[in-house]
Amino acid sequence: xxxxxxxxxxxxxxxxxxxxxxxxxxxxxxxxxxxxxxxxxxxxxxxxxxxxxxxxxxxxxxxxxxxxxxxxxxxxxxxxxxxxxxxxxxxxxxxxxxxxxxxxxxxxxxxxxxxxxxxxxxxxxxxxxxxxxxxxxxxxxxxxxxxx
Length: 148
Known about the structure:
By secondary structure, the protein is α+β, with helices and mostly antiparallel strands. It is about 30% helix and about 30% strand.
């Protein structure tokens, strides 16, 4: 999937209470531990109104819907539309670092925002790599249904 047009990627992280069921359904759909190229799966992502609506697994018998709106960028929609596929990466709970608020001495919440974003990206990358090495990250290629 690395050759050709850009690849749409969806990163999914659910709470601990839902994670075991999501992993079981993902494995039943053909997801594997994230190493090498993601395999083709029977999963699908439904997109409508510029948002990811749900991830369907096990032939549509099980699914995950985001708890809050997940906007799909124009670039993501274009990549998904060109390929008709997306790569889904499933993270264990708490893999993403929390969103930091402004520091106690900061009067302006916009101050140093670029540095905070960069630090958060670096922390997420470290956590993702650690979870991948531990075999706790799954990935697979899914069909994309719907459109902008």
